[in-house]
Design a protein that fits this description.
With about 600 residues, this protein is an alpha+beta fold. It has 26 helices and eleven strands.
């Protein structure tokens, strides 16, 4: 798991350092994510591993990961907004204490594997204090609204308190103006491919209900999330500690040392730690299926992400506890979800369901380091529906594998989303590393639960399908149906419904600012496709090297630019904000886009 954490840190570092248009970066990023998945998958596979993992190999890897991760993370330590002072000088010093204790723990473990509890307990407390303090540093110097999500969550809570429907888009569109949010180049906003920005709530109700206390107390939204960010580490530690596995309770926390990008969440009011904590509590609450289902329903009421493990979790409950408990678990999850969201569904079902589907089906610009980079950088003309289809395919196929090979991989249920999210059109780091953190729990269970030693040494238990005659034939048929259906849907969406493409004939730099950066361009562009015209066109510039803004450099025309089919149009374009002026000496790619119509051109 520690290696997995380091791979996630490396993936994020490569993306931040090399940008979106480097094939080398793509290869490193995608390989790292796949390797991270394999690391998690191998850690929770029931066959092929000894009961306890000790020795110099683990020690060497763990300490190396911690040191390397500190070095990487220290370059991105918090900076005072008031003075510009960086905390690099004592960022590492804060984290030195748990590392020193870890060294004593390792020394003690080598001498006596049944080490007394004092050193592991000290390691846990110091690690929690160090991570908590760094989270607080980020929180202290973060703005009141670090993301557009935090704006919507707080405004949604406000609308609810005054008796209005927060899922009404016409009401939510006033969120930015209500809080005096001034748009700028590096503000955390989500642009649309048809112009403008996302200005509506896109998550279930608990995503904003949790912030009602912050609204009433008139504190930053991140204040509510700050203690919640520590809960995953506490759950993991307690899972092993309560089983009197003192050494395991410390080793299980080593991934947090390798995943120091986790501490950046202290600057955010992002609710990922909440759904992850509730999902972890749902898992550890088994076999009390009613309580576990309730907690899963709460997790799904924060964000839609847990739906990716719903079929795996449901099947896990069925195989481990039987049909009756599975039904009880499912009913508890469903009733809880309806209890939290039912009022808003009844207010206006159309508003609510549209909001739930917004992130996957709305024309949002692509961002992040997943495979869809080949599409949103203009290399291939692929709409985001392709990648949604691929994610759905992977979910179905991986679930088939999970059922067939359940005896060997039953504890891998939380690992699969890492691989699925590789194809998400908007891939953020937290979409990956929380799944690794959650997967630490079943990895611990492979050590502490009675009977797991026998599971690892004996052939894997046969799933109910595997022992049936002709199972391979039926699985092959299902796979063919899934793939054929996907190809048909992809052909329909990408070919029959294709809206065409832009062809950029030439780009000329026409004006520079005092720093020598380009602040105006003339673009010769043609629209080719079945439509008579395209009502507008926007531009996005990707530059090689470090990424200053995940949205990249957004440019536009001064007025709406109508592009007639087949006609060459000359446009003068400007950066949306002066900070989006570009360095003419850096290799760049400009992408013209409107909806699913796009085209690219290399500037240098």
């Amino acid at each position: 798991m520690g290696v997995c954490g380091l791979l996630f840190v490396g993936t994020n570092a490569v993306w931040n350092s090399l940008g979106n248009i480097s094939p080398l970066a793509w290869g490193l990023e995608w390989s790292s994510i796949i390797l991270a998945f394999l690391c998690v998958f191998s850690a929770v596979k029931t066959s092929g591993f000894s009961q306890h993992i000790y020795g110099y190999t683990l020690i060497g890897i763990s300490v190396s990961i911690a040191v390397i991760s500190y070095a990487i993370s220290a370059t991105q330590a918090p900076v005072s907004a008031a003075t510009g002072e960086s905390f690099n000088s004592y960022y590492l010093a804060i984290l030195a204490a748990p590392v020193i204790v870890l060294a004593f723990l390792i020394r003690s473990d080598l001498k006596n594997r049944s080490s007394e509890r004092s050193i592991p307990l000290l390691f846990f407390l110091l690690l929690l204090a160090a991570v908590g303090f760094i989270l607080y540093l980020y929180y202290s110097y973060a703005p009141s609204f670090p993301t557009d999500e935090s704006v919507f969550d707080m405004f949604a809570a406000h609308l609810l308190l005054i008796g209005k429907n927060p899922y009404n888009p016409s009401l939510m569109s006033g969120a930015f103006s209500y809080y005096g949010f001034h748009f700028g180049a590096f503000d955390p906003i989500t642009p649309m491919r048809t112009g403008g920005y996302v200005d509506r709530l896109t998550y279930p109700a608990l995503s904003f209900l949790i912030f009602i206390p912050a609204l009433l107390l008139k504190v930053k939204a991140a204040t509510i999330m700050l203690p919640i960010l520590l809960i995953p580490a506490i759950i993991i530690w307690y899972r092993a500690w309560s089983a009197k596995q003192w050494i395991v309770s410390s080793y299980a926390l080593i991934p947090f040392l390798s995943l120091l990008i986790y501490t950046y969440q202290g600057a955010s009011a992002d609710t990922d730690a909440l759904w992850a904590s509730l999902l972890m509590l749902s898992y550890v609450s088994l076999p009390r299926s009613g309580i576990s289902g309730l907690l899963f329903g709460l997790s799904l009421s924060v964000k839609q992400l847990p739906v990716l493990v719903l079929p795996f979790f449901l099947y896990f409950v069925y195989r481990e506890f039987g049909t009756k408990e599975m039904i009880k678990w499912l009913l508890a999850a469903l009733i809880t979800f309806i209890a939290v969201n039912g009022y808003f569904i009844l207010l206006n079902p159309g508003y609510w369901f549209t909001s739930m589907l917004e992130n996957e089906f709305a024309p949002l610009i692509g961002i992040g380091f997943g495979v869809p980079q080949i599409a949103f950088t203009g290399i291939l003309q692929l709409p985001n529906i392709y990648f949604t289809i691929i994610m759905a395919d992977l979910l179905i196929l991986l679930f088939m594998v999970y059922v067939i090979r359940y005896g060997e991989i039953k504890y891998a249920l939380f690992a699969f989303p890492i691989l699925i999210f590789l194809f998400n059109y908007r891939l953020f780091p937290q979409y990956l590393y929380y799944w690794m953190i959650i997967s630490i729990l079943p990895a611990i269970d492979l050590i502490i639960r009675p009977g797991n030693a026998d599971e690892r040494q004996q052939p894997a238990a046969r799933g109910p399908w595997k022992s049936s005659p002709g199972i391979k034939k039926w699985v092959a048929v299902l796979i063919i149906i899934v793939l054929a259906g996907s190809l048909a849907l992809g052909y329909h969406e990408g070919v029959q419904k294709s809206e065409g493409y832009f062809k950029i004939e030439s780009v000329n730099f026409s004006s520079y600012n005092s720093s020598g950066y380009v602040k105006e361009m003339t673009v010769e562009i043609t629209y080719e496709g079945p439509l008579k015209y395209i009502p507008d066109v926007y531009f996005r510039i990707f530059q090689s090297g470090p990424i200053a803004n995940g949205n990249m450099f957004l440019w536009q025309t001064s007025n709406h630019a109508l592009l007639d089919q087949g006609s060459v149009t000359n446009l003068t374009i400007f950066p949306q904000y002066q900070e989006y002026s570009i360095n003419p000496d850096i290799s760049s790619m400009i992408v013209a886009y409107y909806g699913n119509v796009q085209g690219s051109f290399h500037l240098a």
